[in-house]
């Protein structure tokens, strides 16, 4: 097949024309020497800049200060010998094509023939070189676009160090320097990665055995050509960075063209005026993400995360990080709030130490790359599983979900009208060995598991009523199942295996092979499932990637747009034609820790637009005009209609109680604001029945209370507590028998040990230690300090005093059992002794996203039902209730939801693990209900938080729960001391919530 590039696409020709027009108007004089470019004026033509911006309609962005020359710190002041033009183009819209065509246009109109392209990474360099060198690309610019020139690509590569002999200058630099403008049909492009300029002396050394003209150093020769510098991915070479300074100071370009989807940010202003701005210099084109999605220039995104069978959410997982054969395994536990903790478990240890849902499950054996659990499950290094359903492999579930989406898309693409589209899927994984195998034999457990799951899925697809052609392709897949997947990882570059080398070659350089249904021998090409370890990022893409599955995290700092960028390009059919007349979607599969990916992607895209932040309960005059036009009604009549129905007041502010009703009757208000079309970025999970709707108008009534409750507080104690615990800890250690061998009574006599299991005869009493790991003394102290928050030196002193007072200690007693007893004894002592001494202090930490609000403070549309309650009763809750469903955990909670109280303005269940009050019981605490109430005279508003316990009497509440409630009392006292009064009450079965509120209202 041959890739066909489209000509004269408006979003690509506009930036080409813009750059050429500005440069053409800014030329001062022709080139002085045959190896040089024409010379530009000291300043680019302001008139031409204005005309170009006006033509592409970004003048309004200039007037709104999107393009402003901010004062930079001294170290990153712009150098005087170059000018900068910025061209913003979203990922997948043809940025490389645009700057390549700009090179041709500048040569045609202005006579420039010396260009440097600087890229940040080797993959981008390889991709750019491949594009410029492609025969189809050369034919396109020559035959289709009408340029009668060709690019001489001078590829700068590192040179091998020579100990002896001649030191030759890089040949690519010589070829670039001596290229003359007298060769009318030649353009010279020096392509390099920035590491070649910032690291080493390849271009700056003076001891080469030959000169370029009069120059000893390559950089001086390059600079003398008066080059145009093109920077790809400017966010990776921000002004002020080492790489940017090296490029500009060494090459001294007279013009810099920066092309990117992302531009660097600068912090400007001080104090309250401090904020971030994009470091645009002279922005002349802005194809942002919102426009790219909305205009169908790239694929849309359909995010989905894995859910457990039965609709249960995957809120916790355990990953096998590494193993020591026959001894131990390192496991990472990720909790519901996306926090992680690493544990080392030895053979015989209980996984209940990680999570209570794993109580009774033991680590039974550890082999070279596998752990075996006591329930018979085997887990591989790099594999995840759920604590609450530990037989379910997270990777298996995600792979099955990704393959389901892949074949849905593939079936549609194959059977479409016209030529079929080859459909690819890309998997990012965490462990190379899991795919390649420990000896790089392409036999890793994940690869085997994937092929097993793929085989089952293809058989399912064959059972469908498909076209004969697609059935043949599926059968060919089964016949060549091993060849259906391939991987590329950084370590593959040093691998000598021929099969691996072929995989790397086709993924990195064989774009046309990946897009073809047949190979060069006419046989079916079934390769369409690609694996990598996030190595394939900027610089690699394939237009026919329709599914990306993240079996690993990419890190929190990477832009969400960059993550999906590998699959955003519009696809091509089997003849290489770009298909732009359909609405394509990229399936983006993530794990539960990124369940809000779609919201973050939308926020990132809309954040670029620098829209004015509006309250979710406000509309503007412009919004009313837009909706009136949509409804073909007079604006004034429409405004009167809204007022008559009580939706807005004279100031055009929405009446909060009517907000939800207004959106029902006038849904156009959802769509009138600028930003990305929400149909182009969707969250497939949001339509599931496990979400419940938040009534936004009701939330506004408790917004202030919610904000106060989500402020972070730290727990501390009175100063005398240190002396108290230091004095009592030795007696605690002795009295609680912390250090003793575990005593086990039985009516049998011990015969022998088999591994960790004791086998006994009848009639004996034995004292022995089972499954007990021994610690060195200092390690024991560190663990004890970590879990009790008692300093190491205090713990050491207490143990010494306990030993001196008659506590018999041996080295064997510093074991896991002793550590567990010590932690338990200290926790019990804290609960009994410290509740009255606990204090809370507000931390200097601003909460961003909460369970009910987004990072920007806007209320979310919905919340996961499991956060509110595991059960859901039928019917519609009262209008004052915060949610639209009866989600609850107990009958007492359901009774509270159904109880309507006149004085209550709004009430709702507090999402679990949202208000985290630290307690002395080594855990956090979150109450159950939140109420906003007014007194009968309306003069005083009461904020009430209620802890609901479905016990018949208070004495049934456990000591641990009572400790948490006591700590909560102190927490709300601290909140009151900070100026915000909240009434905290405890409720049991015998107390109705109405009685609690009545007592407070009338009290």
From TrEMBL:
One Gene Ontology MF term: endonuclease activity
InterPro entries listed in its UniProt record: Helicase/UvrB_N, P-loop_NTPase, RE_endonuc_C
Any Pfam family matching the protein: RE_endonuc
Lineage: superkingdom: Bacteria
Domain Helicase/UvrB N-terminal intervals: 80-264
Alphabetical UniProt keywords: Endonuclease, Hydrolase, Nuclease
Domain (Type III restriction enzyme C-terminal endonuclease) ranges: 880-986
Family annotation (NCBIfam families): PRK15483.1
Protein name according to UniProt: Type III restriction-modification system endonuclease
